[in-house]
Amino acid sequence: MANRGGKESERIVLGELSALVIRSPRRTVSLQVNPDLSLVMKAPVDTPEPFLRSFFERRRSWVERHLKRMARIRDAAPIWADGGRLPFLGSELELRVLPGARAQARLADGAVVATVRDPADALAVRQAVERLYTREAARRLPPMVDDCLARASPRRFPRPELRVRTMRSRWGSCDAKACVITFNSRLLRFRPEVIDCVIMHELAHFKYRKHGPRFYGILAELCPEYEELQAELADVYLE
Questions:
Q1: What percentage of the chain has pLDDT greater than the value 70?
Q2: Region at 31 (left for phi over 0; alpha for psi -120 to 50; beta for the rest)
Q3: Where are the beta strands (DSSP E) in the chain?
């Protein structure tokens, strides 16, 4: 298989690990672990194979750690089918999928009940459940923000306008100038303490826009356990 650099792709094997090498007109070598647990090494066109092998060997412990983490995340991903388990505010709810003319989902008797035309259509089930999470987040997050504002009252944060939507690259965002905070509806996958941490994180941006020492000083004041709580966020795919 040829790439844009005109060279054929190759593989470097290191014990049980195998990385696909993609050569292109770039200046640096990088190694990435993909969600499907495959490894890809990107390199300049003329990089010698011994150099790439040495690079791979130096990064081996990093790769093995990330492969374990990726496998753990993948195993915990929701199964969008009848009988699956869905994380919700620190607990798990059973997913019940029923045939129905309208794609929708609701909370009922400690479960998420989704109706779709074809119960085997995992994408339709997921979309219905995501809409449920968005509705529930829009209902549940405002009082949580109010509680965080009360606890952070000495800092005199403004009461922001709140928005909720499904996002793929972040858990929240703050537009301090417009006084708007947007939250990812998928935050409802986490226990309330983790959600509070995200709220405090976004509130701290009203004082400092960038993630510098002063920003984290405020965050530590507002949420002393933020490092442990943010680590839980890192172990979930946004996709």
A1: 93
A2: beta
A3: 10-14, 17-24, 30-33, 39-44, 85-88, 91-99, 104-108, 111-116, 161-165, 172-175, 180-184
Q: Phi then psi for 114, rounded to 5 degrees?
A: -115, 135
Q: What is the mean pLDDT of the chain?
A: 91
d(CA 47, CA 23): 8
Compute the chain's Rg from CA coordinates.
22
Residues counted in the chain: 239
Counting runs of H as helices and runs of E as strands, what totals does the chain give?
6, 11
Which domains, and CATH codes, for the chain?
10-76 (no CATH), 85-131 (no CATH), 137-234 (3.30.2010.10)
pTM: 0.75
Interatomic CA distance for residues 110 and 151, integer angstroms: 30
- Structure token pair of residue 131: 């809409």
Residue 132 to residues 14, 81, 118, 229, 239, Cα–Cα distance (Å):
45, 16, 18, 24, 16
Question: What's the pLDDT score for residue 6?
Answer: 40
